[in-house]
User: Fold this.
Amino acid sequence: MPPFVSVAAYAPSAVGMLAVGVVAEVFGPRPEGLPRFDFALCADRPGQVDTDLGVPLAVAHGLERLATADLVLALPGAEFRTPPPPAVLDALRAAHERGAMVAAHCVGAFTLAAAGLLDGRRATTHWRFAGLLAGRHPAVSVDPDALYVDEGRIITGAGAAAGFDLCLHLLRREYGAATANAIARDLVLPSHRDGGQAQYLAAPVPEDCRDERLAEVLAWAREHLHEPLPVAELARRALMSRRSFARRFSAATGTTPHSWLLNLRLSRAEELLETTDLPVEEVARRVGYGSAAVLREQFVRRRGVPPRAYRRSFTQAPAVSAAGGSSAPEGPGRPR
Assistant:
């Protein structure tokens, strides 16, 4: 199955303008060398759709675009407490049944739940409405803390700007770390936030850290991934005790130094596997693992496939664009 190319976003009545902006930015026109998506905004029927800001939005497509899209997004709207029209629920179910990926962030998750697509699955939404989602749909296992939850062909994300995290996660999963990082840079966004990271943080994530001392240490760590980087060394560079550093790090990132470093090492390994022909042993060395065997163990545990299989899934595939229509082999984590 090739990575997704056609993307259809369903805009309900009183759709969130921020959500429209998020998906339009991520899947809109990109510089040469990056994937080109066939993006369409859809509604119950073509025409004017109200937004949460009171500014009308002209939507050119009806639900027919949901019938052919590789990726279907259910956008959040201010009227999410009212069940969507039956035709919308039928269109979402049909999209999932034919093999499309279906995703939603914020209160858009209520639309997927109403269609029954979240039954028996983990899901997330804006933390403020997690209790309401769980109460209305007891068959859904609601995680109020996650930034996004990946259940294969069903993906849900938290509120507001977490829509960017969900979209970048899908790009990373389907197109690889190098493409996701390039698009994130184009949008001036952090390249990756782990789905298990807390929704609410006392301070920004490391890529946008306002704690100058901590930010300097994290930037240094990114440049020295080939070194062991024990927490004690990071704390020493931050001029803190190990306990104070761990507490300050958790407050700023919502995760532990160990988890942050692990994700950073694996993300860098992904990019090297995708964009270079370096031996796996050298990739392991450059990201701070003592041997290819250790990298393989971590890669299989966290990504589900060994490094060489991950590399093959990207190096054997030609670039995919909406115009070219080239196909790529099924890759790690891609829905079967």
Notes: The first strand starts at residue 6 and ends at 10. Confidence is low (pLDDT under 50) at residues 200-210, 317-336. The longest helix spans residues 257-275. The two ends are 8 Å apart (CA to CA).
